[in-house]
Design brief:
Blueprint: E1 7-12, E2 22-27, H1 36-59, H2 70-94, E3 98-100, E4 103-107, H3 109-121, H4 127-139, E5 141-144
Antiparallel strand pairs: 1-2, 3-4, 4-5
Length: 168
């Protein structure tokens, strides 16, 4: 048996007066060195990492792997990282958020992923095609809506295992 010590930190993640939303963290960091205010600050700094992992998992289909061997799974993970970097850089190169009407707009990350996949499937990856890729990426815009209150309706998906390939 080993002695494991941890603490539970609970803090509000929205401004007072709005609906109560709390975050609960479990940590083994020292209470004196990392008080609750510091833990909240660290969590806020980490939020960009959390959103990038969400994009890697869902927008780039990084949840299901096509191999059982560790080496090939690592190759798929590295390919997803490279694709994430390429898509992110193309979004940065293609546009800045701009305002038109009521909302400010940004490029849709998921559609940019689809466009990049199509670009890599073309055998002739010339400069002309790359310019067209950047134009296509800039075409798909989504509004930036700060303070949005709608809850997302998520559907539970079942895990697809490897035996389905053997049933044929």
């Amino acid at each position: 048996m080993c002695d494991v010590r941890f603490r539970v930190c609970k803090f509000r993640i929205n401004p007072p007066g709005s609906d109560d939303e709390w975050e609960v963290l479990i940590t083994n960091l020292d209470r004196n060195e990392y008080p609750l205010a510091r833990m909240k600050e660290i969590y806020h700094l980490r939020w960009g990492i959390e959103t990038s992992f969400r994009e890697l998992k869902y927008d780039l289909s990084g949840i299901q792997f096509h191999s059982k061997k560790d080496q090939f799974v690592y190759m798929e993970i590295y390919a997803h990282f490279a694709m994430y970097n390429a898509v992110s850089l193309s979004i940065i190169a293609s546009s800045k958020p701009y305002t038109q009407g009521k909302y400010q707009y940004q490029i849709d990350f998921k559609m940019a992923c689809c466009i990049w996949r199509r670009y890599f499937s073309i055998s002739d990856n010339s400069d002309k095609n790359f310019t067209q890729l950047l134009l296509d990426v800039a075409f798909y815009l989504t509004p930036i809506r700060p303070g949005r209150k709608d809850k997302r309706n998520l559907k539970v998906k079942l895990v697809v295992g490897f035996p389905y390939r053997l049933a044929a």
